[in-house]
Records
---
Amino acid sequence: MELLIHSMGEFESLITPVLDLVKPRKLVEVGSEHGGLTTILNSWTLSNDAHLLSVDPAPSEKFKHWAQNAQCFTHIAKPSLEAFPELQDIDCWFVDGDHNWYTVYHELQNIHQHGLTYQKPVLAFLHDVAWPCGRRDSYYAPERIPAEYRQPHSYDIGVTLDRGAIVAGGFRGLGAFAWAIDEGGPRNGVLTAIEDFVAPHGEKYSLALVPGVFGIGVLFTSDAPWADALTRFLLPYHQNSLLAKLEENRLRNYLKVIDFFDQANARAV
Ligand SMILES: C[S@@+](CC[C@H](N)C(=O)[O-])C[C@H]1O[C@@H](n2cnc3c(N)ncnc32)[C@H](O)[C@@H]1O
């Protein structure tokens, strides 16, 4: 097993029963990376006569190789906000692309509008709603974010628990993405984006927050035909304090491992 599990695929035991309950015909995954979740969703679509679309401008070679022969599957090599106008009649969304306020807030606006256009209830799984991205933007491509929404950021420095500013060392993107320099405040982070999206809709939407593996949110239309059954299923996971404690423990241990590596590397030079 990896030192730090991070894929949304780790939520298979939560996601698959929801798919069995809701029976979506068309699913979209935003952010496929190595395909950790994609292959799980694709197995489900193959067994359930459904179709999966994956939106990622820069997935890994492993993913691209797998995608060449995948059935009931389409890959769109564009950023989400460019790809969304091409999507039609979607029943279920998995959002795990660029983890910043601007992108997630506008992805949700698109998803909401899509639901109105196709007269469908919304069901969206959103990853990285807890630390480190819940209240802090990260940017795979800062130039794609309009300047007025972009937090001051850095590719070079890391983040750690208990400190809102970035630090030397800590958990870092190693050139793949940049962190916002400060945690918290308006228009910063994935959970802030979800809250800002939900607030004007009152009780139209329900949101469950599951505090493991960087946190997953499940957002759905409160009066969907399956909403009561989904609520009963998700309730034991929602803000579960044991899961939150286990997550904090693994993050603290991982941060210690990074620290040990950094100290060893510093001694070696
Ligand atoms: C954290 S990884 C996704 C992990 C994957 N969902 C899983 O659970 O195994 C994020 C991915 O999002 C992609 N990405 C970055 N910005 C994006 C955007 N605006 N739209 C769609 N995908 C994006 C990156 O190329 C990267 O592969």
---
Amino acid sequence: MKAHVLVQPGQLEFREVPTPSPDGDGVVVRVHAALTCGTDLKTFLRGHPKFALPMLFGHEFAGEVAAVGADVEGLREGDAIMVAPTAPCGTCYYCVRQQENLCPQVMPTMVHGAYAEFVKLPGAVVRTNLYEKPLSLPYRDAALLEPLACVEHGLSFVSSRPDDTAVIIGGGAITLLHVQSLRARGVEDIIVVARNPRRAAEARTLGVEVLVADAREAGEQVRQRTEGRGADLVVECTGDVEVWQAAVDLARVGGQAVLFGGCPSGTEVRFPTDRLHYDQVQVISPFHFTPRDVRRAYDLLVAGEVAGATVIGGEHALEDLPAALEALRAGGGPKFAILPNGAGNGTRNGRHNSE
Ligand SMILES: [Zn+2]
Ligand SMILES: [Zn+2]
């Protein structure tokens, strides 16, 4: 089969590689849609501390079961499926405490290789984080399961009310997913703070108020909008240390700040202790997802609460992945759908790439 292999940072090779065959308890999936993500772009440009190169590439995908291991029950060739590409062990210290996202097995066993005709899933992933895809859900929307599970994980720590004001900082796909996920929780007053005017315009299409501003300079406007209090909930989606600091500053007394975007390894952050203690701002920086988060993400997608067209800016054939990455680097997207087996699944219903 044809697959993209990330040989070293900046060097992607589109090669013939052996078509995988399933383990006894695993399956092989024919990929119908794989989505680009910010992590892909970062990994392509500079590598990733948790991933060894060379590697097969791409981790957000949905497709159709192409081959089934002898011990797999309940799945057949041809079944349409969606999947979040990791699985916890289920028995370690963290797993028994319901912190499966922190299980040491999660990251080393992550499935890569969605930018290929076929991808192989180990049994643990099949048993834990694989769902049958309803016919009504396009493959490219179903491929949002993983990023949406990460969003759900962060929000699982938040106690929101319908009368809350939420501020979401950043302009990428993760911001747009947070908007939709918060709405599904009944939060209507959502302000997006985005620096890039084009990103701001994309957020506006969701009907939210957008401040085109640097988060470090948005305090005055956010306080004006909230009777001087600050936001009940702030979600940071940039992975920039200074924006982490700004996020805590934008929260009201007794409010919550979700610092979603991972910052570069080794960086440090400073907050005034007053904000955490006397102002009792609760801060959480969520990592990855648990099987419960995947379930909630699945439910949101199936219910149509989150739509692919809001974050997927265009579609590309498999061989055109480099062009999609280049467009991402130039600020396009915020996501692109790569369709390794053609577009024959009735999913061309979204916004199209206009760059
Ligand atoms: Zn991703
Ligand atoms: Zn575990």
